[in-house]
Design goal:
mainly beta, Immunoglobulin-like, two-stranded antiparallel ribbon
Length: 114
């Protein structure tokens, strides 16, 4: 029972550990998917995200390497008659992920009576 409780608590805390996101302004309401072009990698197709009554493109950057990156996005409509239709690419967003440096080790620890 204790293990189940621990697993549940850890699963609830997991979303808090998600990395930053690249988020678009509201997109066309017909948009069903977004194309994400990260640096020189192939296009990644993701589902649109509902934000209230509007739709946005939202891509998680967790696990991205340190250094400079450029991302562009497109809006994709999956039409049953005409097939996939894709917008032109957005203007690029360039950002830098700094090198992560672990905090220093505590100098000393001790017991203190309360």
């Amino acid at each position: 029972m204790m293990r189940l409780l621990l697993v549940t608590i850890l699963l609830l805390a997991a979303p808090a550990l998600a990395g930053p996101f690249v988020v678009s302004d509201p997109v066309d309401q017909r948009c069903t998917h977004c194309g994400v072009f990260m640096d020189a990698a192939s296009k990644l197709v993701i589902a649109v995200t509902a934000q209230g009554v509007e739709k946005i493109c939202k891509h998680d950057l967790a696990g991205i390497s340190t250094g400079s990156h450029t991302v562009r996005m497109t809006c994709i409509v999956n039409d049953p008659v005409w097939g996939d239709q894709e917008s032109a690419q957005s203007l690029p967003l360039t950002f830098v992920k700094p090198i992560s440096v672990a905090p220093g080790v505590p100098a000393s620890i001790r017991l203190v009576p309360q």
